[in-house]
Amino acid sequence: MSCPDDYPIRKILIANRGEIACRVIRSARAMGLATVAVHHGVERRARHVREADAAVELRGDTPVAAHLDAAQIIEAARASGADAIHPGYGFLSENAAFARAVTEAGLVFIGPAPETIELMGDKISSRDFAASHGVPVAPSVMPTEDVDAFAKAAAEIGFPLLIKASAGGGGKGMHIVRSASELREAARLAASEAQRYFGDGRVYAETYVDQPRHIEVQVMGDGTGKVVHLFERECSVQRRFQKIIEEAPSAPLPAGLADTICEAAVRLAAAANYRNAGTVEFIAGADGRFFFLEMNTRLQVEHPVTEMITGIDLVRAQIDVAAGRGLAFSQADMVRNGHSIECRICAEDPDRQFMPEIGAIRYLGIPEAPWLRFEHGLDPGQAVTADFDPMLAKLVVHGATRTEAIGRAITALGELSVLGVTTNIDYLARVLASDAFGAGRLHTGFVLEHADALAPAPLSALASDQAVIAAALGFHEFRQQVFDVPALHAAIGDWRN
């Protein structure tokens, strides 16, 4: 349904790229809003550039540098006549200075207020804020330049501990410490990584929950204290602290725990007068305890699983809130329908510790079904480089039950073809097919615990040949050259040997 004529947003610049840019474009178009894509020179023919109504090329020594140039992006919005900026995720999406600069330029930032990003984006201040509002936080040691004092306080809490970067995420600057003898070196490494990745070397330590589950809650707020949760998601299957499979709702939790976690998330977001979409993340132990982990003040990569079970278009809701229209739904409107699973398709080699891969997309075969979404920004021939995150796409399925969703995801992964670069498609299918995943025995160390069971079976020479032949037959050009009758011969008719 298109927006009314008096809707205050008419054109949105998307300060991002790839699949999330395409995703935002889709919702904006359905609302009757125009979109502007931004891109580095190497991406001028990218899918998100073609799908947008207009595009602006960003200058930069590298593609990442271009996408991180806040001043250039704001100028692009002004020059193109955009009145709002959607940051997507990654890049500048959780940068309070960028959000503030957008609003100071007279543009609408489709996200939280800069003050909220500052409050919740810092892990230490967000922990203190959560604790002050009755949200459980793990016992911790705050950062200090006195290493001896830090080590002593850590020993008093007890091991294992998790050392984390105060200002970062994505697994960077995180180290598990199981004894006092490891503490100093782990703290040094964490601080060094934090400084390198986030420009802030502060680290802290907190109680590490062995085999924790990573449970997060999608919230939407209108900035006046009204906050609605859209249920929880399970994000426990990770490699190197980064998620690869997510699902909504979570795999079975102890009775009442999901509701308690969702209520804590709403309490925290309401206390912050949260505006727009956000995700409150927790770790949950086997004993039923749960602790606040962090809050991501943006749309999450895994938001489609929540959309699949609620029927809510989160991007549209984001735009409506930013436009001052508030929330179009209440908590009473939230009803879970079935189960959804998302698989992150990445250019990486699971057999080499998930090392990123480069290459070019030579063939892309996408399965189709009414219960499936394939979120991507790919094109055949597109180069996959080390310039960006290795995630290429997201395959999302829905089923009436968790069992049905698992089966549909395995089927869809089997039908998905991405040739030209090594991906984790087969690995994801093995994870989903494992007995442990099916039984819901999940935790953040799942990948390591089941490494041997998830390894691929040896491929015979015959099977390898068959795979190559099947792949070749998937190429239209190959089939045409092999099987089609050349025009000259066809003209001869039946008279030919």
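The above is record 1. Record 2 follows with the same two-line structure.
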Amino acid sequence: MPAGPLETAAVGLVAGVLSGAFGVGGGVITTPAIRLLLGYSDLVAVGTPLPVIVPTAIAGAWSYTRRGFVDTRAGIAIGLIGAPTSVAGAWLTSYFGGKVVLLVTAVLIAYMAVDTFLQAMRGPATRQAPISDGHPRRGVALVAVGLLAGLYSGFLGLGGGFLVVPILSRWFGMDIKRAIGTSLTAVALLAIPGSIAHSALGHVDWGLAGLLALGVIPGALLGARLTQRASERWVGLAFAGLLLLTGIVLAASELGWL
């Protein structure tokens, strides 16, 4: 039986804090929580986080922008370019089925966790940044990131931030806080067409989304403030730990190990 309104709002609050802290839009938490803790079906767990992500990402992006931690042009470019592929990704969820989608989610989250951990341990002094500011192919690279992030946003219901943050840090040379703020800007745009598509497919429980939304905005503002005061190294390590734990728990659940 699905959980009650207080439990649902609490999940929204936690998702909001982690979204603001790590730029992942909140879906990385709400997708497994809707499935594992709140007791909803797999496709509802994939589709419902997207409309909740929109206010979460806007609140977080606003907080980071105020403190100069956002590459606004890059964030908007990724979001607008990825909008069409987010619709395609949403359609693919019905073709492949919810179980496959959630297993893919778990694998990708775990991979990004390992990559982010290694980047945080190496530190900014040794970080490779082949597409930093001024690179002649930076525009083409942003297009590629937008298309990929949009596809995964719609397909996995995660907003795309868990993919965008490590890419901006590793390949574009952004420090982790700037990557998080820029990711939230992109995620706010990516989640809108994906939300519409998943709603049309019947994957969004709007009552559930409303309850989750009660906690996400204050949570996102709090999470952003916490990250902005922390060191880059600890933010990177915490982000990696969050992703790894989520990926392991989600995969174990879908494989019947929990």
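The chain has a mean pLDDT of 81.
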